[in-house]
Each structure stands twice: as C-alpha cells, then as structure tokens.
Design a protein that fits this description.
The complex is a heterotrimer of chains A (about 210), B (about 400) and C (about 200). Chain B is of the alpha+beta class and about 400 residues long. Chain B has 15 helices and ten strands. Chain C is of the alpha/beta class and about 200 residues long. The termini of chain C are far apart. Chain C has two domains: about 130 residues, 2-Layer Sandwich (Beta Polymerase, domain 2), CATH 3.30.460.80; about 40 residues, no CATH class. Classes of the chains: A alpha/beta (about 210), B alpha+beta (about 400), C alpha/beta (about 200). The interface between B and C is large, with 44 and 39 residues.
Chain lengths: ~210, ~400, ~200
Amino acid sequence: MALDEGLKSELQKQGIFVLPFEQIYNWGRKSSIWPLQFGLACCAIEMIASAASRYDLARFGAEVFRATPRQADLMIVAGTVTKKMAPQVVRLYNQMPEPKYCIAMGACAISGGPFKDGYNVLKGIDRYIPVDVHIPGCPPRPEALIHAIMTLQRKIANQHLDKENRPRWYNQQSETEFPIPSYGEHDLLPPVNPKVWHPPRNYRDVTLDEVRKT
Amino acid sequence: MIQPLAEPGRYTLTAGPIGRADARPSGEGLIETQKLEVSIGPQHPSTHGVFRMDCVLDGETVIALKPVMGYLHRNHEQLAERMAWLGSMPYTDRLDYFNSMTNNWAYALAVERLAGIKVPDRAEYIRVIMSELTRILNHSCVIGFMLQDLGAWGTPLLYAFRERERILDLFEAVSGSRMMCNYMRFGGVRVDMTPKDLAAANDIVARFPRFLDEFEKLLTTNEVLLARTQRIGILPKELAINAGISGPMARASGVEYDVRKIDRYGVYGRFDFRVPVGDVGDVYDRYYVRVLEMRQSINILQQALRDIPAGPHIAPEVKLRNFKIPPGDGYGRIEAPKGELGFYLVSDEGGKQPYRYHVRPPSFINLTTLEDMCLGHKVADVVIVLGSIDIVLGEVDR
Amino acid sequence: MEGIEKIKEVAALAVPGAQIEIVNSTPAAQQPALLVNREHVHAVAKFFKEDPRFQMDFCSCVTGVDYLPKADKPGFIEVVYHLYSVAQRQGPIVLKVRAPRELDSCRVPSLTPLWRGCEFQEREAYDLYGVKFDGHPDLRRILMWDEFTDHPMRKDYAPPADYEWEPTPHDDTLQRSAQAGGIVPPTAIQELEKARKK
C-alpha cells in the first residue's frame, strides 16, 4: 500500500484523504465507546467524578453510560468484586454484544486490592473474564481513568483486521461467552477460569530480558 | 433469596386490602392479575452500589420487598482483627467511601475513649471543620443522586459535584488524597492545616450559601419534586426509634436526636447550631432536612474557622508505634452524615491488635424499614425511597 | 443515669431469678456491662425498655464476639447489645449474653420482638458466628450467599486454600502450587526436592 507521499499531500490539499479501511473502521469504534454504568465500590465514585463536569469523560467519546449491558461497549469494573457478586459480573459481560472491552479499575478489580485475603473477595476480575486495561490506584484519580480510556483507544486502533490481535468476533475459534461460576459451600465453583487466568509463573524462570521486553 | 410466596394463586383486584403481604384473594372480582416477582439489582442505574431488592408486585404496586445485601462484603472486621490498631485506619476510609473523614473520626474516637487519650483543642477544631465539610459534601451529592433517580438526569448531580470537587481539592491539599484521606490519628490529626488551607476553607464556606440558594430555588418548590416525593415513604416516629433509625432519616420523622447534641463529643458543645426536625417523615422531609442541615453546617464551619486556636495538632504523649490498649471493651459513636456511626472495640490481653472490631453502620440499620416504607407504593417510588434513605454499600456490607 | 451497681440492683429486683453480673471495661472507657444469663435476658431487656426510669427505646448496636477456649475457661460466643434512650437522652446500657460455641447448642433468645433495629444485626451475627436467635422473625443469611456453610468470623475459621496467596506454602499446598506453576519461594525448593526423593 505504498502510496506516493507527494500524491497523498496533493490529494489532501484537494480534500481527498486516502486511508486503509481499518483505520476508519477503528476510528469509528474507538471514538464512541459507551461504558456500562456499573460501579461496585469506591472507584465508582471516581468514575462518576470523571464523568462529571470537571474531568469530562464525554470528550473522549464516552457520551452516555448505558444502564443495560445490551447497549454498552465497555465494562469498567470499578471496585471490589466479591465472590457473591462475581457470577453477576460474568453474566453481565456475557450479555454485552461484541465488540466488548473490559477495564479493571482500581487495585481491587485487578487483584483483590487491600481486601485480598478475604473469604468473600475475588482476587481480581481477570480470574473469569479477559481484561484489556488495568488501572492501578486506590482509587485511581479521574485523570488515570481518562488515561486508561485513551490507552484502550490506542489498543483498538491497533487491532488490525487481518492480524493476530484482530477483534474477537472475527476469530471463529475464540469465545465470547464465559462460563458463570456458581455458589459452592465454601467458595465459588470453579474458583478460576483456567482458560482466562494463569497463575503467576515461577519467578526464578523469568529472565531479565523478558522483563525488559514488556 | 426471596421467601417462597404463601400462595402462588391468582389475585383479584377488588377494594380489598392491597398493600399487605398477607392479603388473601377474594372469591369474585373484576380483573384477575398475577403477582410478579422482580429483582431490582444488583446492577441498576441507581448509583447506590450493588444492592438488590426482591419485590413482589401486583401490577405496579409493591406487595412485599426483601432487601438482599452482601454483594460488597469485604470482611473488613476480620481484616482489622489481624492488623495493629492504627493499621485499620485506612480501611475505615473505605467503609462509607463517600465520606472518609467522618469514618476516620469515629474510629479514632472509639479508640481514644477506650484508651483515655485527650485530644488537643486545635485538632478538635480541625476535626470539626473536616467533618462539617464532609457533611455538606454528602448531603448535596445525596440530593443530586436522589434527583437523578427521580428522572432529573444528572443536572443537580453535576451542580453538587462541582461543589464537591472544590472540597476535595482542600482534602487533597491537607491529607494527600481526594477521597481516602486517612487523616485522623489517635490523639489528633496527621498533619496540621496551613493558613493557606484555612483560607481555602474560608473561601468554600463563603461561596457555598450562594450555591445552596441556587439549588433550593431550583428544587424546593419544584412541582415535580413535590408531586413525586410528598406522602411517599412515610416513616412513623415510633417505628423510627424502635428500628434504630438515626441521622437525617430519623430527624425527618420527628425524632429529635442528634449525637452531636446528645454526646457533645469533640468540641461540639461550644458551637451554637440548631437541629432541623421534620414532621411527616416522607421523602420530601428527608430532602428538606438535609438542606437545612447543610445551612447549619455552614453555621458551624463559620464559627469553627473563626475560633480555631493555635496549638499541637496531635496529642504529644501518644506513642503510635506499638500502640497498645489495656483489656476491655467500649463503644464510641459520632453523628456521621448518614446517621449514627459507631465502633465497638474489644481489646484482649496483649492489646496490639483489636480482639473484636465491629462497625455499627447507619446505612445497614436504616434499611430495616425499607419494606414498611415501600408497601403500597409503585415501583418507581421504591427507587426514590431508597435514594432518600441514603445508603452506601461499603457501609452496609462492610 | 445512676451507677452500674444501682442499675444491676434494680434489674435484679424487677426480674426475679435473673443472674446479672457486672463486667468492667478499661478504667478510661467508663462503660461497664451487665452480663445476663440466657434464660432471663429477654425479661431484663424488656424491663429496661419499659421502666419509666430508663425507657431504653433505641437499640443501637448488636455485636457477636467469639472467645476461644483457654486453659482454664471454656470458650463462648457473646452477643453484646448497646441500648440508648431517646426519650430521656441517656445511655448506654450494655447487655451481654453468652452461648456455648458448639453449633447445635449456640442459641440465644432474640430481642427483635422488643426492638426492630436488632433484626438485621442479629441476622448478621447468625451468618458470621452461627448464633441462632430464638424468636427472630426471619433468621437467614444476610451477607454471605445462602449455599455457604461456614461461619467465617469465628476465630477458628480456615479460608479455602488459594495457592496464589499462600505466604509460606508447605506440604500438599506446595505440591499443588508447584504443579500448577505457581510462585515457589527458594526455601521451599529444598522441601520439594526432599519430597520428590522420598
């Protein structure tokens, strides 16, 4: 697709833009991400604050927070996910239509946070559903949430339609619905979804080069 | 889980007793309807958090309602049993995550009462300033949330959040964090307020009455608000006292009980302020009691900012490292914006960690009468009644 | 309000047969409690609620506390009630009731018929401690899900093994963790080698 740069700029001066199709496709998708109105705990207040007038999130395309998952693109899991709530979170994620993304906001959604050793606390929502962006903080500032939305926008822009990281619904084999855990006698069953979450590797096997690459 | 219904039979719409869960179907009637079970929550657009209500409806009228909670149960009390006394101070921020300063004060007060620590005057005044700022922040946003549930999609809420951001800037300057301040310590506060902070507080207090006037002009005589909130969710006075209801919800029902006036904790005995008390106990009264309380808080703030003395900001004799309390138990409570927030602490021998740490959460206990208030009303009113109770799930579930 | 001795005398007179003891707190706290036996706690509470000298119409806080058995004393679960009076602006009166720790005999009369405010808090004590309240209108779990079988706030509760969190994994937890590819601290490597050699 090597178009002559001179030709490109000449066309631009006439008001004609030449772009690959996926750029327009992804530009439309990333500029209008509608989140699901789904706050669990304290991070929800910072999410509301970032949607309020001072740190306006609507500038970035998150114009309305939809109340129903059927009309939302993005689920911002803001707050601690407890084991009692986890089946409902997975159910909501399943009900969202593709393309769907998930942001884990706050330390609790990433890994359980300050409440990690709790009998009712799920140690991170990425045990059951795939998460695209993690935001550390307790609670993260509204600017951090805006940065996460921008990171997600960059990620969407990088989802080339013909490469490995293409959107999930173009991949015939990948799953869009995840199994919902059920309430057991002592814990959720199953405690993790092995296809989505892998326990951390033995730290002695991780080399320094690998760390530098990520 | 919802209780099994007594009789899943058909229910006829006659002039019979609608609104009682034990209403029996009569022999003949005009129209046959069926009971409908609806589970409102745990994810619903009313932003009070993950709370579920199992309603049984006859058409749109509520016949029974059972609240289900525990979706945010983070075993805060068990965590506190493993940590040192001071270590659970950041966790108290996350109880009522909307007002972190008052949670901190309640815990610090309970420990100080148990250990017999005397707090210097300047620290007490700073605590009062922070607490009253939290109160006006909370009441204005709660009214905003309630109006969002009523259908005024976000406009009053954004007005309230504008004021909240100003106060959060002050909290960030003083304690380092917008929301989870972790500011109070046993014997005082963590850092002192600089003259710049006091000037910022004065500025907030000077601007707030104008915002409140604007807010009131839009809302208090608004005919939609009046039509939708008067005579809805009435809580009688005797039931309020018997059910342990506290805070603006009890005062709207006519219960003249404000822990600031009864216990006179801190230096509240020195301030001249009045306690607004309602008479009917419906949703409108709860809204208006909060508006009046905001005005009284401005009053207290003006007096506190005028009279704040110089001095240490924390009691110098308290050793926070290896802090121990002799064996015993005690209960300390304050008037949080939501109601009476209390901490029951038990110290066993050893004394470096609490043996038992229990939070008396106002939102949890204020939910006891939710069913009584909603019976006979429509589904849309349930959301408004819940909004007027003013719950925060971090506190309900701990 | 009068001193705790006087209150105890008055209550003991009003409710014959009740065994009431005074439990002291720290000297600074000034909140002594009345320990009442299980059979008479309902009558004593009713006396405090209705007697015109006290009029304790507001039950503020209900707490369950788990005391493990020690060398000389058996363990018990204690339920603590804090009562205040709105009409007379006095309080608190602290009532304590004890029940044995075994699940089938851990029963205490419920004070919900007297004060509606105890309803949710007693349900919470049942959920987290296993104390059954006789006479409670709706005793079921409130914070944990209904299929849960343990009582988590008891001191001898063991949470489900989750090898990601284990700070010092050993024995079979260590085996499971190593098989699943989890983090294995260096000190535990030798233990694994020894177990493998055996």
